[in-house]
Design brief:
Helix content is about 25%, strand content about 25%. The protein is an alpha+beta fold. The N terminus and C terminus are likely disordered. Helix 2 crosses helix 9 and helix 3 crosses helix 9. The strands form four sheets. Strands 12-13-15-14-16-19-17-18 form an eight-stranded mixed β-sheet, sandwiched between helices. The chain has eleven helices and 21 strands.
């Protein structure tokens, strides 16, 4: 089905907005009426997180592919995820994805789609030399991403995607397997339901019996996948969880001293539907933190209620809010933070990203920025930065859809599912430095995360740069007296 939708902001390519994914669509030459044969490609995106709205036959070797826009919102056309079958061995094709809503893209810098097939189920990136990104005169000078591919196995089903998919079902299987372990320091609960009645999961990770009842409890809150097409955020989030529930000595110490609350998928409907940025009803949820509706934005409403409630609990100190995203035009991992008038608070806010930069070779402090753009006012970082007290820090953690550059390197290193998860492990590890807990590591126990390439800084090494790292009770009292509430 097609319907005519003219976009309010006049972006090109939206007039023929598509509704629904292709479903086992066989594409044959115009006028062909014989029996289907091998090489008449069959396209499908009617599966979880799938997205492909239309296929146009150009010739036997070339096809124009149209991304289905986000449900109820024709502005966003970025994520794609589809399968191709009924191929002929050694069949060479060019696929042109012709209706991206963004012009800037990492495709200009060497990014390529990912592919897997039934006999090779591990996702891998296409060779960059087979990918072209250009303004196309045949498509109203829109940007087109073309990639060449040679099918090599007739019986395989091939799957192509914008980036490594991480579906709602995958998360549910992961959380269920975690639950089956019956770990005493992990609690899973259903915080609410989405519009389409999918679970909004909340994980609490802490050694509650080890936390001192008379001391204020430090709490770190982490969310991911408010933008459903930003699948790297889920791999980072799983990396954080994997590390925090492990038997690594650093993880054990963190569980003794900090409460971690994690909402791994803020927009389960959008993820399930294969949207890039919006929920089922077409809302960019990361612009609705100020006044989320319980019926239109139920997942956001539930999370905001929980955070407000915890913020009012005198026994709990909500110290961090980190919202995990993926970025379509920049390399590396980096953070966005808020802008404050007080210089001491500005310095203190920079501590965590500085420490993370020393722990994670793919994290860039130079790409990290602090801003208060008007368009970001409804984001989690901006709204909670204004709601929580002066001893709390709110960040957006971004990671490239494509690659990272390490210090001294000249070529970008493409991210894999594993290296996204490793960044998550390094994020978790950095709280040890921030809270000055290094001295609790026994001499005979390893300090480094086994898979980390980066060094493991001590709190004092950064403090030597004129920044106070971590907070004990004295630090917190001084800071509260100095800054007051805002």
């Amino acid at each position: 089905m097609e319907e005519k939708i003219v976009e309010a902001d006049g972006e090109t390519g939206a007039e023929d907005a598509l509704v629904g994914n292709v479903n086992k669509l066989m594409v044959t030459p115009p006028g062909y009426s014989g029996a289907p044969r091998k090489g008449h490609l069959v396209f499908d995106a009617c599966f979880e997180s799938g997205n492909l709205g239309r296929v146009d036959y150009i010739n036997d070797f070339e096809f124009d592919l149209f991304i289905r826009p986000d449900t109820c919102n024709p502005r966003f056309r970025v994520w794609f995820n589809f399968t191709v079958e009924n191929v002929r061995e050694t069949q060479r094709v060019i696929f042109n994805i012709v209706n991206f809503s963004k012009t800037k893209s990492l495709y200009r810098d060497g990014m390529s789609p990912v592919v897997k097939s039934t006999s090779r189920p591990k996702w891998q990136r296409l060779p960059p030399k087979n990918v072209y990104y250009y303004r196309c005169p045949d498509h109203r000078r829109n940007y087109v991403m073309s990639f060449a591919f040679c099918f090599d196995r007739e019986d395989d089903v091939f799957q192509f995607a914008y980036c490594y998919p991480y579906t709602y079902s995958r998360l549910q299987h992961y959380l269920a397997s975690l639950e089956r372990k019956n770990l005493p320091y992990v609690q899973r609960e259903q915080l609410g339901l989405s519009v389409q009645q999918r679970r909004l999961d909340l994980l609490t990770i802490t050694n509650s019996d080890r936390l001192s009842p008379d001391k204020e409890k430090k709490l770190v809150f982490l969310t991911a996948r408010v933008h459903p097409g930003e699948s790297p955020a889920s791999f980072i989030c799983q990396g954080v969880i994997d590390f925090l529930v492990s038997q690594h000595p650093v993880a054990q110490i963190l569980r003794d001293h900090v409460i971690f609350k994690i909402v791994p998928m803020l927009n389960p409907d959008g993820v399930y539907l294969g949207n890039y940025r919006c929920s089922l009803m077409g809302f960019d949820l990361n612009r609705h933190w100020q006044d989320p509706s319980p019926w239109a934005h139920p997942t956001l409403h539930a999370v905001k209620q929980l955070i407000v409630q915890m913020n009012q609990d005198p026994r709990v100190s909500l110290e961090f809010y980190i919202d995990v995203h993926a970025h379509s035009t920049m390399l590396n991992g980096f953070m966005y933070g808020n802008v404050f008038e007080d210089e001491e608070r500005v310095q203190r806010q920079a501590v965590f990203p500085r420490l993370l930069c020393q722990n994670a070779p793919d994290f860039s402090f130079s790409n990290t920025s602090f801003n208060r753009d008007v368009v970001k006012a409804g984001t989690g970082r901006r709204f909670l930065g204004g709601l929580l007290d002066d001893t709390s820090y709110c960040y957006t953690l971004e990671v490239s859809f494509y690659s990272f550059m390490t210090a001294g390197s000249t070529a970008p290193v493409p991210y894999t599912e594993e290296t996204y998860m490793k960044l998550g492990r390094n994020v978790a590890r950095t709280f040890l430095d921030y809270y000055k807990l290094n001295n609790l590591i026994k001499d005979n126990r390893p300090l480094h995360i086994q898979s980390s390439e980066g060094g493991s800084p001590t709190a004092n090494s950064t403090a030597g740069k004129g920044i106070s790292v971590g907070r004990d009770a004295t630090d917190r009292k001084k800071e509260a007296n100095h800054n007051g509430r805002h």
